[in-house]
Amino acid sequence: MHYNPGCNITECQSSPSNDTHNNLVHILARGSRDSIHYIWSTIGAPTVLMVHTTSKESELIVDWEKLLRATNGDNSGAITFEPSNEVDFSMAVMFNKIWEYEDLHDKSELPEDDTEMFKPYDLSQMRWGDFNLTMNTTGLTGNFTGATTQSDMESLFQNGSISFRIHAFKTDDRSADLPHLQYTSNQTQFDFTIDSVEPRGNMSRYAMELMLLTEDKHLDLKKMKSIDDEYTPGVFELFELTMTHSDQTDSYVQWKPVCYTKSTRSMAVATPTKTYKLKDLDTTSIPADTIARAYFTNLDRLQRKALNVSFGLTGDGSYVASNFTSWTASVGYGEPPSERLSLLIIIVISTGLGIPVVIIMFGGLFICCRQKDGDKGKKEIMDEYPTVNGGETDAIN
Asked: Which domain holds residue 75?
């Protein structure tokens, strides 16, 4: 994990006048024959760019002058990889807007008409803190924490913030915290949190808009169901946003439909999320100055989609009940990890089903043996009596 690699200009070394830090974090996973690059950044708008190369020696190249001092906001080509011909696949997820709406009828349903919502928080207009102060290169974690610079909404962040906590991994396992998502060394997870932001309504709820760019031909949203809620009690679903090419999954975004209303997560403070349909995205809607625009030089040839995820369920008191919402998802390369029954659950199910089967089998065998012994006893009793007339019948004339 490296912070602002190779940057020597003043915009990287100190905070500008508006206190916004130009954060760019490079996470690299090298295999024996390939490399996976994750670049997280708050430049322009919070974005994660994932690039897979078929070379274990591939390198990230950032033209910082072009990225941060581009004229007319055109930073296209500021991010590249060498050797360029070894780039196999790339995609980006941008976190564009936070919607807030007044849920007076407690329907927990994001309005279809934007005019029915409050003015959104534009994440490209945020004042971000210094990621380097929270970066843990051993645990591969760190926080992007920000507050809006939109003049008519700055006061709402007087004691609050919006943050993304990112976490990369060296092994395959499950997260220690709920919802206990599976992770691999080929992915990064993030916790998105709205903390103590002053709501503008008495029944305010929030939702987040994600934008997705990919070179793959197919971008699909799937809802997977499971019979097991061992790791996330009460949650039997898993959402996957997969990017595929020639029937091969290249990357994914994965999450469970649950968020938490306290920083200490437990089943008692869990509340569902809602995931909405994918929408087509015009190139003009993509935020300027982001690392996605800096890397993808031709947006027209990409698959472009947008997706909303809203937080909360009817009857949970809405955001104002706790002034806290936190949601977890992961971004990864290759096939997403699938939910499997744990060894404990397999043993419990096997025991629960096996014991009745054993009882039935032994019960049936016992009954059969008793029946056979009964038939033998009856035969012995009948043999003790002589046959009438020696076994012959006299005719009556």
From this structure: 2-340
